[in-house]
Every structure is written in structure tokens, then in C-alpha cells.
């Protein structure tokens, strides 16, 4: 279970009265699925209802991919890749010992990025996991087309049915139709779970399993989260309490921005996923906090001055891992030219922990308040539990704002403008 702690003058002065008045109603909207967008609350009990045969099928597909290929290219954008990438990097780190590669390619229109991936896999045997409900999302469909073309040129069209794995809509869409026609192994994106909540479905589970991570532990973490964060009292439910803090710091303290902070580079993608989860869920009807991210101590050497003494416009949510996955002991040096012998015999994680405490005190003694989320371990189980914690928190804080957490009407505007400028049929006259 995630532990929530608060620090700072501002946060300690918050008046919870407005949340007290609404909490019961909001929790009822979630539990009874009566709030706006309630047809996308499938994540509430998805893990506990996930059939054993589906878990086994995902594991078997991952085993096949890892055995027969050098790498997996995941074609997906937004929630179709952010969650999986976040979990994989959080658990395996940035330079894993596992030689099997997971490459994310459907998330950009950068020609340089796509060109470099093509060069990188030129002499590798790769499989493709294409993730899309519609099959027509530009970034994803383009990358899928590019890498599918490479497979056809090298091995022939028939090869695709063994090398392509489609995660798509249950009943409709261009990708579903293609998967049926070509014989791709297919996994279903549930109708009642939106992209930014989909890491607990095959959208996330297949790439995570292909990275050599035990998805059963991950699923168990999510299942336990269903119990851990279901309490009706928001002040004793860690997820709801955190959601309430987000709401009050925005509405009462008039703070406009939340910065997700970690002290592990492996958590950088977690904070990127959180930006999507909260910004896309709450950023509508002129509501919501603007989310950003930072990795300390790294970013203290670039933006620490602003956080310490700049415009008081943000607060910090710190992802604090209680137990390090790996550690290194500071060596002693006879010359001691760098004056670091005072650290000799200490571990790097000990020094990092002191840096965390020192920075927290400095920031909160000033004008920056902070919430610390204590995560027991950086492992599969706890990452699953963490995901569910944020799901509940997000739904709670969004409903407090009276917005639909599960739609994204603004996203469609730039898409229509782009299609019109590019001359897509059906959009040129609009």
C-alpha cells in the first residue's frame, strides 16, 4: 500500500471543509458508476475479473516473442505506450541485463527518430505489437506501416501472421479488420477502459511480459489495490486523500501546477505517464492542475533555484522508493582530491536519501509544499499497486472538479486541423 505524507506551511493550513461536503457523493459516483463518463470505469475491478486463460495467453505470446525474436517494436501513442514504458523502465531500469529489446515507435512523427529505429533494427529479427482501437491514429498507423513493410520485403507477406500481434477493439476498427484478415494474434482493449487507464489490460501487459517482467505479480498488485484504496472515508483512504490534496491545493491554495518528482532516473517515465493521466483527465472546462515532472538530484542543478525562490506557482508530489533495487558503496581514495572520503563506506542510496530529506526540508521551509508517496519497492507488484492508487486518486479529484475524467474533447480539435491541412479526404471542406 502507498503511504501519503504532507509537508509545508501551505498544505498544513488547508481547510478540508469543501471536500467533507462532497466526498460521500463523489465516492458514490465512483463505486456505483453514476458519474460522468461512468461507462469507462471498467478499470475498477478489471484485474480481479481477468480470466486465467487470458493471462496465460499473454504469457505464452510473450514467451514466443522472446524466444523467436531479438526485439519487439511497440506501435502505440498516448496511453497505448506510456503506461507500459513507465512500468518497464521503473522495474528493469534504463540499461537492463536482458538482451531482448522493447522499442517504442508509434508515438511520434519525428522522421529522425523513425529513421534511426529502422537503421537500428535493420539486422535484427523483430516482432511488432500494434496497439490501437481504431487502427487509423496517424502516428501509430504510420510506424506500423513502415515496419510491416520491412518485414514483407525481407520475409514475405505470409511472415506477418507470426510476427505481428494486434491489440485492438473487440468488434470494430481498421486494425481489427486487418488482424482478422491477416491472421495476427489479437488481444482486446476493453470497451470500458480508456487509453490512459489501459496499462493493466493487454495494452500494457503484453509489452511488460515481453520485457521479462512477471505480470502475475503486477496483476496481483492491482487486485490488492482494489481493496487497499476502496475505503469510504477519504481521509483514511490514501488514494482519495491524495486526490483531495490535489483539489484543495488548486482551488483553495490557488496553486496552478503539480510537479511529480522522483529521486530515481528509472521513474522518469512514470512521471511522464502521470502527466497524461492527470492532465488529460482533468484539463477541461478551464479546470485542473498543469502537471510537470523532474528527477532529483539531477534537475536541482538546472531548476532548483526557481523551485527554491522563484514564483510560488507549484507544489511537489514526490515518488519515494523505500528500498533500493540495487546499490553501490562509495570507495575510498588515498589522494582524496575530490574531498569525498567523508562518504567512503556509505552507499549511494544512503547519500540519495539524505539528499531527498535535505531538499524536502529546504523546499518546504520556503514556499513549496510537498506530498510524499512512499512506495515499498520498485518491483512488479508495487508498480501494479501504484497504478491503481493513481487511478482512484484521479477519478476522485476530477469528480471534485465536476469534470468528466474519461473524455478528451479538446484532443479532437488539433486532429481535425491537421487532417484538413494535410488534405485527408472528408476534411478539406470543413
Helices and strands, with pairings:
Blueprint: E1 3-7, H1 9-12, H2 17-31, H3 46-49, H4 52-68, E2 71-75, H5 82-92, E3 101-104, H6 111-120, E4 126-131, H7 138-155, H8 160-163, E5 164-168, H9 174-182, E6 185-188, H10 202-210, H11 215-228, H12 238-251, E7 257-262, H13 268-282, E8 290-295, H14 300-309, E9 314-323, H15 348-365, E10 370-377, H16 380-400, H17 411-422
Parallel strand pairs: 2-3, 2-4, 4-5, 5-6, 7-8, 7-9, 9-10
Antiparallel strand pairs: 1-10
Helix pairs in contact: 2-16, 4-10, 5-10, 5-13, 11-16, 12-16, 13-16
Structural commentary:
It is a single chain. The protein has helices at 9-12, 17-31, 46-49, 52-68, 82-92, 111-120, 138-155, 160-163, 174-182, 202-210, 215-228, 238-251, 268-282, 300-309, 348-365, 380-400, 411-422; strands at residues 3-7, 71-75, 101-104, 126-131, 164-168, 185-188, 257-262, 290-295, 314-323, 370-377. It is α/β, with parallel strands linked by helices. The protein has two domains: 3-34 and 221-400, Glucose-6-phosphate isomerase like protein, domain 1 (Rossmann fold, 3-Layer(aba) Sandwich), CATH 3.40.50; 42-213, Rossmann fold. Strands 1-10-9-7-8 form a five-stranded mixed beta sheet, sandwiched between helices.
Amino acid at each position: 500500500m502507498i503511504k501519503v505524507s504532507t509537508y509545508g506551511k501551505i498544505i498544513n493550513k488547508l481547510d478540508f471543509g469543501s471536500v467533507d461536503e462532497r466526498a460521500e457523493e463523489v465516492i458514490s459516483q465512483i463505486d456505483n458508476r453514476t458519474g460522468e463518463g461512468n461507462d469507462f470505469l471498467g478499470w475498477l475491478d478489471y484485474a480481479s475479473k481477468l480470466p486465467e486463460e487470458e493471462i496465460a495467453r499473454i504469457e505464452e505470446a510473450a514467451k514466443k516473442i522472446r524466444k523467436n525474436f531479438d526485439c519487439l517494436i511497440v506501435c502505440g501513442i498516448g496511453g497505448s505506450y506510456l503506461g507500459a514504458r513507465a512500468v518497464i523502465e521503473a522495474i528493469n531500469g534504463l540499461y537492463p541485463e536482458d538482451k531482448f529489446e522493447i522499442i517504442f515507435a508509434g508515438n511520434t512523427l519525428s522522421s529522425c527518430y523513425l529513421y534511426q529505429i529502422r537503421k537500428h533494427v535493420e539486422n535484427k529479427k523483430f516482432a511488432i505489437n500494434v496497439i490501437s482501437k481504431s487502427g487509423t491514429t496517424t502516428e501509430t498507423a504510420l510506424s506500423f506501416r513502415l515496419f510491416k513493410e520491412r518485414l514483407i520485403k525481407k520475409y514475405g507477406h505470409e511472415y506477418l501472421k507470426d510476427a505481428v500481434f494486434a491489440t485492438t477493439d473487440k468488434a470494430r476498427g481498421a486494425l481489427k479488420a486487418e488482424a482478422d484478415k491477416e491472421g495476427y494474434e489479437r488481444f482486446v482493449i476493453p470497451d470500458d477502459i480508456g487509453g490512459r487507464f489501459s496499462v493493466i489490460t493487454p495494452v500494457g501487459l503484453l509489452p511488460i511480459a515481453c520485457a521479462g517482467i512477471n505480470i502475475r505479480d503486477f496483476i496481483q498488485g492491482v487486485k490488492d489495490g482494489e481493496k487497499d484504496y476502496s475505503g469510504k472515508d477519504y481521509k483514511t483512504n490514501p488514494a482519495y486523500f491524495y486526490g483531495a490534496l490535489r483539489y484543495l491545493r488548486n482551488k483553495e491554495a490557488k496553486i496552478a501546477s503539480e510537479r511529480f518528482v522522483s529521486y530515481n532516473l528509472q521513474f522518469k517515465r512514470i512521471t511522464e505517464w502521470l502527466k497524461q493521466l492527470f492532465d488529460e483527465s482533468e484539463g477541461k472546462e478551464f479546470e485542473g492542475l498543469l502537471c510537470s515532472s523532474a528527477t532529483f538530484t539531477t534537475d536541482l542543478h538546472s531548476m532548483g533555484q526557481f523551485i527554491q525562490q522563484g514564483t510560488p506557482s507549484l507544489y511537489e508530489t514526490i515518488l519515494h522508493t523505500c528500498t533500493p533495487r540495487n546499490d553501490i558503496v562509495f570507495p575510498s581514495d588515498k589522494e582524496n582530491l575530490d574531498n569525498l572520503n567523508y562518504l567512503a563506506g556509505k552507499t549511494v542510496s544512503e547519500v540519495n536519501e539524505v539528499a531527498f530529506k535535505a531538499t524536502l526540508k529546504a523546499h518546504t521551509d520556503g514556499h513549496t509544499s510537498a506530498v510524499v508517496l512512499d512506495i515499498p519497492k520498485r518491483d512488479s507488484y508495487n508498480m501494479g499497486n501504484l497504478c491503481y492508487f493513481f487511478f482512484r486518486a484521479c477519478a476522485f479529484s476530477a469528480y471534485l472538479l465536476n469534470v468528466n475524467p474519461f473524455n478528451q474533447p479538446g484532443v479532437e480539435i488539433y486532429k481535425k486541423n491537421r487532417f484538413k491541412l494535410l488534405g485527408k479526404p472528408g476534411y478539406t471542406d470543413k
